[in-house]
Every structure is written in structure tokens, then in C-alpha cells.
Specification:
Layout (H helix, E strand, L loop, with lengths): L17 H11 L4 E2 H8 L3 H13 L3 E8 L2 E8 L1 H18 L2
Antiparallel strand pairs: 1-3, 2-3
Amino acid sequence: MSAEPHPRHQLNEALMHPVRFSLVASLAAAEEIDFPTLRDMLQVSDSVLSRQGSQLESLGLVRIRKGYVGKRPRTWMSLTKSGRQEWNAHLAALRAIAGE
């Protein structure tokens, strides 16, 4: 038996959910993305995106910023520094599992 732990132990449980995984993957490719753009990219409802984003925010992985464009309220999401580190570690574990 190998002394090295299996790479699956390095996976982040919060990123195992398909919508959260997709959300973090999208945010990893940008500084910040507005809510309607994310919703359309991920092909989810407002409530699903809001719920999953809030869960990631409570874990410190995502930052949700609210503001206005003109008189219209707007919401933006971005990865925190910790969120970016967790994403990179999660991807490294997936690659190790896949044997890359």
C-alpha cells in the first residue's frame, strides 16, 4: 500500500456541486463577472445562482459586490484570493486523479 494519500483527499467538497464548480471555473477566468452574464453562462435561474454564490461567499471563496449602474441595482461576483487558491488545488487534485 502506498504511503501517499490518494489525490481525492485534496478535492474541495464545496466545489463538488456542478453549479458551484461551473461558477468558480467561470470566475477563475475573469477578474469579476456581473450576475446576468454569469446566469446566462451557467444556464441557471436567478435563484440557483444566488443560492450557490451565497454558499461560496459564506465559505470565503467568492466575493459578492452590489452596486448600481445608473439607477439600476447590479451584482458582481469574483473569486477571493483563497477561492483562487482552492480552485487551483482542486484542479490539481482532479489532474492527479486523471493521471495527467
